[in-house]
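SEQUENCE-TO-STRUCTURE ENTRY
===========================
What this section holds: a protein sequence and its matching fold, both as plain text.
Tokens: labelled as protein backbone structure tokens, with as many entries as the chain has residues.
Question of interest: how does this chain fold, as expressed in backbone structure tokens?
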Amino acid sequence: MTGPEAQTGKFLAAEWRRLVMLNYEVDPAVLRPLVPRGVELDTWGGRHFVSVVGFQFLDTRLLGVPVPFHRDFDEINLRFYVRRRAYDGWRRGVVFVKEIVPRWALATVARVAYGEKYVARPMRHRIDLAADGDPPDGVVEYSWRDAGSWHHLRATTEGSAQPLVEGSQEEFITEHYWGYAAQRGGGSVEYRVEHPSWQVWQARDPALECDVEQVYGRPFVESLAAEPFSAFIADGSAVVVRRGTTM
């Protein structure tokens, strides 16, 4: 489900595929200074979470036009979960702490259009999944280079990909269909992300090999240095990102 019909036009269309999602419980005091105006922290089971997510951006089109040399690329982001009461009920969304892509032009467009915290770093990936998408032991890994070192995010599929279960953490993590970004001057931008419900594999051997303080800052060291609360890999789908509106 994608929620109420959006009133804004398409900004970006693409496919998001092979999403590795490592989810960590976090002290809400770490997140409160980062919450944009007009939204509040969202919880699952009374807990607050951040997720490190790596995935493929494929067949990317900006305002309906493919951008040469920028159609297929990887992204790794750190995000947390918020909600906002609107005329149509609760809108559940995400706020990005940092988003890593391999080309400076991608980072620049996202920063200008939405005020998102994008940076450009060398990146690579390893995806060992069978053509039917359901191998017994499929490894998905995304890596990026920062300050002279390679950092890695990976997990191994376990069992078969399954539809989301209502009320599950997998549903909570994947089905936040709005994005929120704080703006200079104190305002916020809201934008809608549309995609169908995804199937997910449970994951084993999740790993975030990263200098957390260097990449994400000291406040996230305690949570991201711990074992993930959960880990899974989503198959992904076509997505549409709508133009943002100022709240």
